[in-house]
């Protein structure tokens, strides 16, 4: 369908790691500050929003690459032919899970952004109230469960996609290198998932039920 599909896929693969993957890691580290309390979480939020040209960096460095990766990823998922029922090999299963988690991650990120970043942009939620917003989300059992599904999908999609990136870009060549990268990326998957769940659980604390005063230094 696309004569230049090779280049589209290369760009899709690259953007999935740089910068989208970096953004996921940054988001993880920011939210992990919640395990230290509302003040530390707010301090991290204020630091990020105090960066120069933060809106431009978000648009160029996050939203546009994320949009391309998501839209083209959905196209690839639609075009893919999964034959895991006939060929139950490990990598074939991982290929199928990559496509499924890609769709789930797209839906989760869109939902999460609407509840947080979009609400801030519309003026419905202040930056210092994001901890309170996350508290309301995390203390709802149904939404908490859906967030767990979204978190696992996002971390798996990134780490397994990182394995594919290393292969497609010729970094891991040969079965031995690819087996080693499987161990590393799956270890990263477990680590990131645990840290995200710890962050989400931290927001259930009563200390997040009341907004923290913003410390902008102005």
From TrEMBL:
CDD domains per UniProt: SQR_TypeB_1_TM
Protease as UniProt keyword: no
InterPro entries to which the protein is assigned, alphabetical: Cytochrome_b-558, SQR/QFR_C/D, Succ_DH_cyt_b558_Firmicute, SuccDH_FuR_B_TM-su
Top-rank lineage group of the source organism: Bacteria
Alphabetical keyword list: Heme, Iron, Membrane, Metal-binding, Transmembrane, Transmembrane helix
Cell location: Membrane
Keyword set includes Iron: yes
Transmembrane segments annotated in the record for this chain: 12-30, 50-75, 96-114, 144-171, 183-203
Cross-referenced NCBIfam families: sdhC_b558_fam
Protein name per UniProt: Succinate dehydrogenase
